[in-house]
Amino acid sequence: MRIVKTAEERRNEILDAVDELIGQKGLDGTSTNDILKKVGIARGTLYHHFKSKEEMVNVLIERYSVRLLAAAEEVAADKSIPIVERIVRVVMSMNLSGESSNEIMEHIHKPQNALMHQKILKMLINGLTPILTEIIREGIEEGLFDTAFPYESMEMVIIYANTIFDEDIVPMTDEERISRIQAFIYNVERLLGAEGGSLAIVMQMFSNEENEH
């Protein structure tokens, strides 16, 4: 008996295949024929759901984004975690992990894919800022922070962090990077009206991230 799949099921099946193939062969090494063979569908069926491989990658990015923001929201809602640690965990939860996603992020950073990079940044600004803002408001209520602009402050932090710490935009030595991180933490504390040294845990977060790479 022939199994008829819904459009959504078929699209997800295609995206799962693209995700797996990118992990195995890299983005540039994954061809349309590879995808057709993996899913077991005709070319016409593939193009009925997606116009191009670029569109598939775009939709895959959106799917990652939904997953990442859901993870960030889950961490943010856990009131048993101290506020500063929760901020760190929310930021860390946004890191794409896995071979396929790393390939996608490398692809996005190529000059010809600037629009895709912009799309990721837009997702981070629009999705992550409100999540972090709620934690900052909790911190204000507890007396950890003192700012009249929690949303705008988080927006500035996200935009700065995703620009300055993007090595494709701002190349820097290890020493320069450490200095930037220290200055970043120093200024975020003042932006939020936090006690000096209260966000020192963020330095550890960056150090751990570097060690993982």
Description:
The structure is a single chain. The chain is mainly alpha-helical and 213 residues long. It has 2 domains: 1-51, Orthogonal Bundle (Arc Repressor Mutant, subunit A), CATH 1.10.10; 69-212, Orthogonal Bundle (Tetracycline Repressor, domain 2), CATH 1.10.357. Helix content is 71%, strand content 0%. The protein has 10 helices and no strands. The chain has helices at 7-25, 32-39, 43-49, 53-76, 83-93, 99-108, 114-141, 150-164, 174-191, 201-212. The protein is elongated. The mean pLDDT is 83.
- CATH class annotation of the largest domain: Mainly Alpha
Q: How is the CATH topology of the largest domain named? A: Tetracycline Repressor, domain 2
- Tell me the name of the CATH homologous superfamily of the largest domain: Tetracycline Repressor, domain 2
Structural class: mainly alpha
Return the CATH architecture of the largest domain. Orthogonal Bundle
Helix-residue proportion: over 70%
Which outline best applies?
elongated
Profile the largest sheet: none
Question: How many E-type strands?
Answer: 0
Task: Summarize, please.
With 213 residues, this protein is mainly α.
Topology:
Elements (H helix, E strand, L loop, with lengths): L6 H19 L6 H8 L3 H7 L3 H24 L6 H11 L5 H10 L5 H28 L8 H15 L9 H18 L9 H12 L1
Helix pairs in contact: 1-2, 1-4, 1-6, 4-5, 4-7, 5-7, 7-8, 8-9
Looking at this protein, list some descriptive labels.
0% strand; 10 helices; 71% helix; mainly alpha; single chain; Arc Repressor Mutant, subunit A; Tetracycline Repressor, domain 2; 2 domains; 213 residues
